[in-house]
């Protein structure tokens, strides 16, 4: 006679099914992703960095307009 309550093993089995269904959905989504070679991606990153280097305060030689430069030291010290 079942009281309508699931046993621990039934709950665990259902959780496993749910987990596997989510995994299948995720794998189907990943299958649709366009893959790109690492060498191409690295070349794109290098190109981006070189193109934007002039705007990077850490790469500029003129430190006078760098908002991240260290401030003046405290006069008390």
UniProtKB/TrEMBL annotation:
<comment type="similarity">
    <text>Belongs to the G protein gamma family.</text>
</comment>
<feature type="coiled-coil region">
    <location>
        <begin position="10"/>
        <end position="37"/>
    </location>
</feature>
<keyword id="KW-0807">Transducer</keyword>
<keyword id="KW-0472">Membrane</keyword>
<dbReference type="InterPro" id="IPR036284">
    <property type="entry name" value="GGL_sf"/>
</dbReference>
<dbReference type="GO" id="GO:0031681">
    <property type="term" value="F:G-protein beta-subunit binding"/>
</dbReference>
<dbReference type="GO" id="GO:0005834">
    <property type="term" value="C:heterotrimeric G-protein complex"/>
</dbReference>
<dbReference type="GO" id="GO:0007186">
    <property type="term" value="P:G protein-coupled receptor signaling pathway"/>
</dbReference>
<keyword id="KW-0175">Coiled coil</keyword>
<keyword id="KW-1003">Cell membrane</keyword>
<dbReference type="Pfam" id="PF00631">
    <property type="entry name" value="G-gamma"/>
</dbReference>
<dbReference type="InterPro" id="IPR001770">
    <property type="entry name" value="G-protein_gamma"/>
</dbReference>
<feature type="domain" description="G protein gamma">
    <location>
        <begin position="13"/>
        <end position="77"/>
    </location>
</feature>
<protein>
    <recommendedName>
        <fullName>G protein gamma domain-containing protein</fullName>
    </recommendedName>
</protein>
<dbReference type="InterPro" id="IPR015898">
    <property type="entry name" value="G-protein_gamma-like_dom"/>
</dbReference>
